[in-house]
């Protein structure tokens, strides 16, 4: 077993990213840090280091247990890394999942019928306590 591995290969081999090129792109875009410092795809990682990976809205943290460059099966991932992500990050993920229909990402296309109904019910004036929406347009006041 080797004592170091390239970070892009390790992230791919540990199944954090689907492909090595996606891992390398994430590193180049500053979404992967070690000790708060942005790294390059060729950076070597050692066992014991903590790697932070930003996958909005969550920043995951992984401790390297074993340095590998060959992809392993999903059952072997716990031998390779330890998930040390702060529980508050998972709360952020849950909050984003609950309110996901309100804050749509640009380019995700039109809302589905179900999403549109959820948006409509959320923005319905009755939801905010305005039962009679158009009372101020009455012609009786003239």
Strand and helix layout:
Blueprint: E1 4-6, H1 7-13, H2 20-28, E2 32-34, E3 37-38, E4 44-46, E5 50-55, E6 58-64, H3 77-80, E7 81-83, H4 87-98, H5 113-122
Antiparallel strand pairs: 1-4, 2-3, 2-5, 5-6, 6-7
Helix pairs in contact: 1-2
Describe, in plain words, how this protein is organized in 3D.
The structure is a single chain. With 142 residues, this protein is an alpha+beta fold. It has five helices and seven strands, in the order βααβββββαβαα. The strands form two sheets. Strands 3-2-5-6-7 form a five-stranded antiparallel β-sheet. A hairpin with a 2-residue loop joins β2 and β3. α1 crosses α2. The longest helix is centred in the middle third of the chain and has 12 residues. The mean pLDDT is 81.
Mean pLDDT value? 81
User: Helix tally?
Assistant: 5
In total, the number of strands is 7
Cα gyration radius (Å): 23 Å
Beta percentage is 15-25%
Instruction: Note the run of SSEs as H and E.
Output: EHHEEEEEHEHH
| Stretches with pLDDT under 50, minimum 5 residues | none
Q: Strand arrangement, largest sheet?
A: 3-2-5-6-7
Portion of residues in helices?
25-40%
Q: What structural class is derived from the secondary structure elements?
A: alpha+beta
Q: What characterizes the major β-sheet?
A: 5 strands, antiparallel
Quick one: overall form?
A: elongated
First-to-last CA distance:
88 Å
